[in-house]
């Protein structure tokens, strides 16, 4: 089912590179297409949004308008079941509680000479969240992007998502947005939605930051938007790496690899193990479980193209390989997972132990599922409260405090050749005998 390679095999390096470089943000045709959409939205506003929605989503919204109305949300509540409503409220509660622990208070440090230094935190005014469309409603994306923004105190949360053929939005998506506290919803998807949020149109409100996953066109549009507004990250296809020893349950490991593979043909599912026996058992389990899945074609393509089982000589080598991958999702299924936690340096989310299945992190645990992909966990963090707040430094000096450091500051300014900088400090002491 999956290729089994030993770490001594020469293919290991190419396998690593194939996974990490499977998403490209520099396809010329796609970049040009997004640039054209961007320019049209910039010059034609709503008209361009309507035109692209008709072309890409096959729906004319000129009469209905782009914004979801209150009666549409009311109607959506009548279409969802009570079990879903209970589940999504548990999800929102857990995600909100987890992110509330990340909140930092503004602070000030007062020195003996009266100098005051500090930091002031303020929530962003307006944040746009992108929620992909498709055959199934991605309600978890609404929660993971919207709930932390709400906890952070964002003044206005604006959601964009592609409309269905009838010009509406999936009722489960609408209800989730209402439960999270989204303020406005636009029936717009694709690169045109990102351009509308970044630039503003007659209908669409310009935001300060855009968060949320999307296809390559959405990602390229977010890349283009950066500078006009802030963005969370450039997300590529999803990935999971399972780090396991002989104590791992092969049924659980196979199930978790498949849960990631069903996302997308470009998703990556990797097992790094110290056990050749486990490697073979997992492969057998993959075949058994794959036959029962509704999205088996997608799973199979993903596993064949971007999946692998890598057998390490020992646990230290397995850990080193894991850190090289810097996976979006890392499952640690070894005999004593907490004993090696300190050695795991690069991962978006770390799932510890036999019962921490990756999908529980997608939906209900509380930590964010918007995670760095493609090896960017080496330098990027999951979406968090700081993504929705800005920090201002506070600096107050007394004359006595400035006098202590004035000569040092002046000297640095002189080295940089900035006489006015130096003079700005010197002038405060001219003619003074104090």
From TrEMBL:
Active site: 328 (proton acceptor), 329 (proton acceptor)
EC number of the protein: 1.1.1.23
An MF annotation (GO) of this entry: NAD binding
GO terms (BP aspect): L-histidine biosynthetic process
Residue sites binding NAD(+) per the record: 130, 192, 215
CDD domains tied to this protein: Histidinol_dh
Protein's job: Catalyzes the sequential NAD-dependent oxidations of L-histidinol to L-histidinaldehyde and then to L-histidine.
Protein name per its UniProtKB record: Histidinol dehydrogenase
């Amino acid at each position: 089912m999956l290729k089994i390679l030993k770490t001594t095999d020469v293919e290991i390096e190419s396998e690593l590179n194939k996974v990490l470089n499977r998403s490209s943000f520099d396809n010329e045709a796609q970049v040009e297409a997004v640039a054209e959409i961007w320019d049209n939205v910039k010059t034609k506003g709503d008209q361009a949004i309507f035109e692209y929605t008709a072309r890409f989503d096959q729906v004319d919204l000129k009469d209905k308008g782009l914004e979801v109305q209150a009666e549409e949300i009311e109607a959506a509540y009548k279409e969802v079941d009570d079990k879903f409503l209970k589940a999504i409220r548990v999800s929102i509660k857990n995600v909100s509680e987890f992110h509330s622990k990340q909140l930092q208070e503004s602070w000030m440090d007062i020195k003996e000479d009266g100098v005051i230094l500090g930091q002031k935190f303020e929530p962003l005014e307006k944040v746009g969240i992108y929620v992909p469309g498709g055959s199934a409603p991605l309600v978890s994306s609404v929660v993971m992007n919207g709930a932390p923004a709400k906890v952070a105190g964002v003044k206005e949360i604006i959601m964009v998502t592609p409309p269905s053929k009838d010009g509406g939005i999936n009722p489960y998506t609408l209800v989730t947005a209402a439960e999270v506290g989204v303020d406005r919803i636009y029936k717009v998807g694709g690169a045109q939605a990102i351009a509308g949020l970044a630039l503003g149109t007659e209908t669409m409100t310009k935001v300060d930051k855009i968060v949320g996953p999307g296809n390559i066109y959405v990602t390229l549009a977010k890349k283009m938007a950066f500078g006009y507004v802030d963005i969370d990250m450039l997300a590529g296809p999803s990935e999971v790496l399972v780090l396991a020893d002989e104590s791992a349950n092969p049924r659980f490991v196979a199930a978790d690899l498949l849960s990631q593979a069903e996302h997308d043909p470009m998703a990556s599912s990797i097992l790094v193990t110290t056990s050749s026996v486990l490697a073979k058992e997992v492969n057998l389990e993959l075949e058994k479980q794959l036959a029962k899945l509704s999205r088996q074609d997608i799973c199979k393509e993903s596993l064949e193209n971007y999946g692998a089982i890598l057998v390490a000589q020992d646990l230290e080598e397995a850990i080193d390989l894991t850190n090289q991958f810097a996976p979006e999702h890392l499952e640690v299924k070894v005999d004593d997972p907490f004993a090696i936690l300190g050695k795991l340096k690069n991962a978006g989310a770390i799932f510890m132990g036999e019962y921490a299945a990756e999908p529980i992190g997608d939906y209900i645990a509380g930590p964010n599922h918007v995670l760095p992909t493609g090896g960017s966990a080496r330098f990027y963090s999951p979406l968090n409260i700081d993504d929705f707040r800005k920090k201002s430094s506070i600096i107050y000096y007394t004359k006595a405090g400035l006098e202590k450091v004035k000569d040092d500051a002046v000297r640095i300014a002189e080295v940089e050749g900035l006489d006015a900088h130096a003079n700005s400090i010197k002038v405060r002491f001219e003619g003074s005998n104090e």
